[in-house]
């Protein structure tokens, strides 16, 4: 099968990356012996014609050419960039079908790994557009500003509108394009590592109505000399904070090494679960503020499950013995879960650990401004350095990156044997593998899934793990 070859078929299912797939067959209906075709932006039941473009670990990736007959699961995507842009793979799917697909993918992963646990459903996001509080828009070598094409590292979609953020994203990007042209600033070339403007990062406080914009550049001094006053004039009506950030490494990342503030404060604030968080431009924060509140509630219920339901008015009360717990919050970031637990459980003590030192400083500030600094301690350092191994913990909160737990972290937790572990996972494929080790002395008491990422295959899974 050669590149450019046309294939026809009916999408039979989806692969673990959310692409529609079908088995390649000959004209007589027999298999070609060439494996499976995966076609992004398709739906189960679509009858399609596609063009073979590349190989991916034995799977042949094809580009949708013609939709011969649409699936009942298909809807009209509202974004003009849908079907090309890598930001949303599933805008063409009914939202109910997206939730079912995520549930089935989670359960399939658990089944393949030999686990008996299943999720009954995925908690839906009440709004499926304008739900994100952060987007990082890349600058392409031809001056495009937007997101990369799906599956391509060197092709860019010049975004005119983006339905993931609040209104105004397209206008912000156009102002930056115009400013670059007027100031003779060059787009970044990720292949030859030259140019000026690399990323436009937009962060929003959905509940504070703040908006922070960071223009990530290669050389701060050079850009500073090129009419930043014009940039301030253009963007001041569209933000509460405007920063220029420098990133001079060749690595293609949107995080800056240093910043200069042009408008407002060098941070953003957001309120989730009645907790006010200060967020640094580089800080990790759950990208869906609305659903992040649901994660908080789930973690709280898993840490302290016994509610006094006789208290019909106001906030639920907790059993006194449960309230006096020591919480170890690993990968704590800027204190998202730990501070919420301390605020809702007046006798709980929290100790949080996080690699990012600026995030730890923010965690300390956030604990203070929310009135729980006397019961929250935060420390900077790698989780695998085990500076927390002797911390007494009745419950451990785990919220690791997509790569999952470091092997030393997992080993030490198993040695510590805390009564309760609450694992917040943004990558259930890693979770199912790590559960095999947890289950040597633990059981999964409950598991829930939350849709923080509509129109993508990503899903958040929270597991309550307790001693057998």
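^ Assign residues to that structure.
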């Amino acid at each position: 099968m050669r590149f450019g070859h046309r294939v026809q078929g009916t999408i039979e299912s989806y692969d673990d990356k959310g692409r529609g797939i079908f088995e390649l067959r000959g004209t007589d209906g027999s298999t070609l012996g060439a494996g499976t075709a995966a076609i992004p932006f398709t739906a189960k039941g679509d009858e399609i014609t596609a063009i073979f473009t590349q190989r991916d670990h034995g799977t042949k990736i094809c580009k949708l050419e013609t939709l011969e007959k649409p699936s009942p699961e298909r809807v009209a995507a509202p974004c003009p960039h849908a079907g090309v842009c890598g930001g949303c793979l599933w805008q063409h799917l009914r939202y109910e079908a997206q939730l079912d697909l995520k549930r089935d993918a989670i359960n399939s992963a658990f089944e393949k790994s030999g686990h008996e646990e299943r999720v009954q459903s995925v908690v839906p996001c009440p709004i499926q557009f304008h739900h994100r509080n952060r987007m990082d828009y890349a600058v392409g070598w031809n001056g495009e500003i937007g997101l990369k094409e799906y599956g391509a590292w060197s092709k860019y979609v010049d975004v005119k509108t983006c339905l993931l953020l609040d209104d105004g994203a397209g206008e912000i990007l156009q102002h930056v394009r115009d400013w670059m042209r007027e100031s003779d600033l060059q787009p970044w070339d990720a292949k030859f590592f030259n140019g000026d403007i690399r990323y436009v990062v937009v962060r929003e406080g959905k509940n504070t109505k703040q908006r922070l914009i960071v223009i990530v550049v290669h050389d701060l001094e050079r850009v500073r000399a090129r009419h930043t006053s014009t940039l301030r004039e253009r963007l001041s009506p569209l933000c509460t904070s405007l920063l220029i950030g420098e990133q001079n490494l060749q690595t293609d990342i949107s995080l800056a090494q240093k910043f200069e503030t042009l408008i407002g404060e060098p941070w953003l604030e957001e309120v989730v679960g009645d907790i006010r968080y200060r967020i640094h431009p580089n800080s990790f924060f759950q990208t869906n503020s609305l659903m992040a509140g649901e994660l908080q509630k789930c973690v709280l219920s898993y840490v302290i499950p016994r509610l006094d339901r006789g208290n019909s008015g106001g906030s639920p009360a907790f059993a006194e013995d449960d309230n006096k717990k020591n919480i170890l919050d690993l990968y704590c970031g800027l204190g998202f879960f730990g501070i919420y637990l301390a605020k809702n459980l007046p006798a709980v003590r929290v100790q949080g650990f996080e690699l990012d030192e600026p995030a730890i400083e923010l965690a300390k500030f956030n604990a203070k401004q929310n009135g729980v600094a006397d019961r929250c301690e935060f420390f900077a350092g790698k989780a695998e350095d085990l500076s927390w191994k002797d911390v007494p913990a009745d419950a451990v909160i785990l919220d690791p990156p997509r790569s999952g737990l470091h092997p030393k972290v997992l080993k030490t937790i198993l040695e510590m044997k805390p009564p309760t572990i609450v694992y917040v996972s943004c990558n259930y494929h890693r979770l199912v593998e790590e559960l095999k080790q947890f289950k040597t002395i633990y059981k999964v008491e409950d598991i829930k899934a939350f849709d923080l990422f509509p129109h993508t295959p990503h899903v958040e899974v929270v597991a309550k793990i307790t001693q057998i």
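Confidence is low (pLDDT under 50) at residues 307-316.
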